[in-house]
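Memo to structure team: turn this sequence into structure tokens by end of day. - J.P.
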Amino acid sequence: MLTALAIQNAKPRDKEYKLADGDGLHLLISPNGRKHWRLRYRFGGKQLMLSLGTYPAVSLADARARRDQAQKLIADGINPSQQRKLEKLTKEIANRNTFGAIVEEHLQKQKETGISENTLEKNRWMLQKLAAPLTDRPISEINAAEVLAVLRKVEQSGRRETARKLRGAIGGIFRLAIASLRATTDPTYALRGALAAPVVTHRPAITDEADLGALMASIDDYDGWPTLRAAMQFLSLTMVRPIEVRLMRRSEVVWPKAMWRIPADRMKMRVPHEVPLSKQALEVLRSVWDLSREDRYIFPSIRSPLKPLSESAINSALRRMGYTKEEVCAHGFRSSASTILNERGFDRDVIEAALAHQDTDEVRAAYNRSKYWKPRIKLMQAWADLLDEFKSALGRTNSTRSP
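Reply from structure team:
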């Protein structure tokens, strides 16, 4: 049997030679001085050779331990060389199937389905930045504790809602891995209830009819950029989201049908939405129609006709009119319409359809879009008339606020 001293004293020769240790283990010494551990063994009636590493990275004790492990596999009917190839292949597959690799695949699928660029960037930010500690981990090895540590870090920064959304986003990656046979469990399932509930903050909105009349009068009297005033008027009349108005293009308006067709990629639920346009809404469009050309934005930026109004433009205008962020925001016009129309007894289902709140039943949702079209035409005209009524009841003398 070999000793550590004998190995250290072994010098290279003109030809490679072996120093035997026993049970097939030997040290092969090359002319260049490198020393390789090898194991000669028989399996399936054949004489085979297995490399066990190089000295001194693999010590004598380590080489003997590896020999013993190989002999145990042989006793169990397993070829050590084949087992090593299998382990290497498994490791390579695991490295290719990391959390980060599946995130890339997931984001690519989302892009191909037509998801908005804004939503895609938010998902990329969550899954690649916030979940960065998981990026290089094989998806099949990630456990609930690792995921929880990532979520806790976000939660402890005060972003409870973001932590909740991140858990769902990470769960989507595991569901893709499970569906493609690269994982067997979703650790986020065990974490339901593990995070503190987010503090719900409702978007500020004016729901008093007299106060809303005052706001609408203030908007009519707004002396800023014409398309910004028109955008606020149009937003209040159509019950849509601010982004849908800001990115509105000329080709989306169907004048003969008094209709606005919003493409799916701009809708929150990725479903096309058609908006009946009241007489007042059509008048607003006519007032700014000649300010744009071809298929450009109807409500362009102050700085360039090639760009839409910025996200903050409407809120900034409301602040200049004297309304604080606690009183009203651009998104609040939807809440104003929903609250007042429900309080006045309009059909709840028609209001929900007008707000583009998606039914979870796709068949029912498609049916309702068709079923409620005529009632929605009446609803949108009624809402526009109500806004005029609120302004008339107020009187124009005290309609504006001082900043």
